[in-house]
Amino acid sequence: MNRRDPEGAIAEAARKYSNWGRWGADDVLGTLNFLDEAKRREAVALGRRGVSFSLSQRFDMNGPQNGWGRRTNPIHTMLMTGSDASLGNQGSPHGIGGADDMITMPLQCSTQWDGLGHVFDHGKAWNGRDAALTVTSEGDLVTGIEHMAPHAAGRGVLLDVGRVVGTEGELPDGFAITEEHLDATAEAHRVSVGRGDIVLVRTGQLTRVRREGWGGYAGGPAPGLSFTTAGWLHRTEIAAIATDTWGFEVRPNEFEHAFQPLHQVAIPHMGLLIGEMWDLDALAADCAADGVYDFWLTAAPLPITGAVGSPVNPIAVK
User: Is residue 296's pLDDT more than 90?
Assistant: First the structure.
């Protein structure tokens, strides 16, 4: 890998690992096609104990955003309150009152999925479409994340790389997770990774920033997947992957003068569904305790018409 030539490396990986046309010219699901009904039936049986874990960070003003890319933390506003009800200001009959609220936020400000219209490569969106005609000021006209809402549920697999490879459960910022690290972690957990799985990679960065403060969590240095894992992501035929970091791939990126090169291959060329800022700590502790690293996972995006990303509250059931 020539660290001075991100353009060449991206082009080569895009050629080798493209899924364009694999599911037809009109496809809007990408790698979620690997998660079919048979895989989902098998996954349902993984909720053996019935214990459940939310894998979402909280959506509030104390979140990680610092203004990068105009992203802000959620703004929660009350429209009606208990005070309004007690003062009789709501005009409702027979003493009934209520509270109502709203939230204003970027769709990718906390735990979320990257949709297929989120990243382009040289003006091309997923499946070779013209980005200019796919995502406009009206939203993603073709691959809006609403199409994925019924499909993101199946077998989840946790790869706790922070626990297996790191020190005291954490990887340092800038640590590039390679295919060898992923395979070694799966072997240590005695778990398989394959077609239709939703893979969760814990680095431990979220654990650290909760202890030390957000710092540069949103957009700064982080452990993450190496660009060299593109082949693994393609070969394993996983349906989706999510991490506990802001950007999924290692930061700083491995090339000079580059920005998120693995995204540039994985989303527009592979059609891979990518999740970021997932909270995997409680799940990881339970997996370490009982030695079981696969589970039923439901992680449906909100069906926001034309959105290129979506908040999500993933639920793992063991």
Answer: yes
pTM, to two decimals: 0.97
Q: What pLDDT does 95 receive?
A: 93
Length of the chain: 318
Question: Do 237 and 92 reside in the same domain of the chain?
Answer: no
Q: φ and ψ at 283, to 5 degrees?
A: -60, -45
Domain match, 99 and 216 both: no
Average pLDDT, rounded, for the chain: 97
| Residues 6+ away with beta carbon under 8 Å from 93 | none
Would you say residue 1 lies in a domain? no
- Residue 148, in any domain of the structure: yes
The answer to whether residue 1 scores a pLDDT higher than 90 is no
What pLDDT, on a 0 to 100 scale, did the predictor assign at position 291?
Answer: 98
Q: What is the pLDDT of residue 17?
A: 98
Please state the rounded mean pLDDT for residues 276-289. 98
Exposure of 165 by Cβ count < 10 A (0-12 exposed, 13-18 middle, 19+ buried)? buried
- pLDDT score recorded for residue 229: 98
Task: Tell me the β-bridge partners of 113.
Answer: 275, 310
The 3 state secondary structure assigned to 231-299 is HHHHHCCCCEEEECCCCCECECCCCCCCCCHHHHHHHHHHCCEEEECECCHHHHHHHHHHCCCEEEEEC
Residue 55 lies in a domain: yes
Query: What residue has token string 């970021």?
Result: 276
What is the distance between the alpha carbons of residues 90 and 77, in angstroms, rounded to a whole number?
A: 17
| Dihedral class, residue 215 (left if φ above 0, else alpha if ψ from -120 to 50, else beta) | left
- Are residue 139 and residue 285 in the same domain, yes or no? yes
In a domain, 52, yes or no: yes
Q: If 0-12 CB within 10 Å is exposed, 13-18 middle and 19+ buried, where does residue 288 land?
A: middle
Confidence check: pLDDT of 234 > 90:
yes
3-state SS class at 14: helix
Domain count, the chain: 2
Give CA–CA dist 199/202, Å, rounded.
10
